[in-house]
Amino acid sequence: MTPDIHTVLVLDEVGRQIPMKLIQPLYSITYVAVLEAEVAELKKDAERYRWLKENHLQTGKDSWIRTGDDLEEAIDAAMKEAQS
Description:
By secondary structure, the chain is mainly α. It contains two helices and two strands.
């Protein structure tokens, strides 16, 4: 959540208030950078999930992770169980 830029008081190195019209663009650029970093993390998670869904993965001697629709159903069931 972004703070209301009208309630933020920014001072320069000698204590003078910096006008919001100068701060807002910098704040917006920083906020966009934070969102871009979060999107990059989410994309990586999505790539991992798609890879897992499309490939078989052995996790132990006789333990295999489900793939495809079975994987989605197993994840949905586990998430639902965790919420109850």
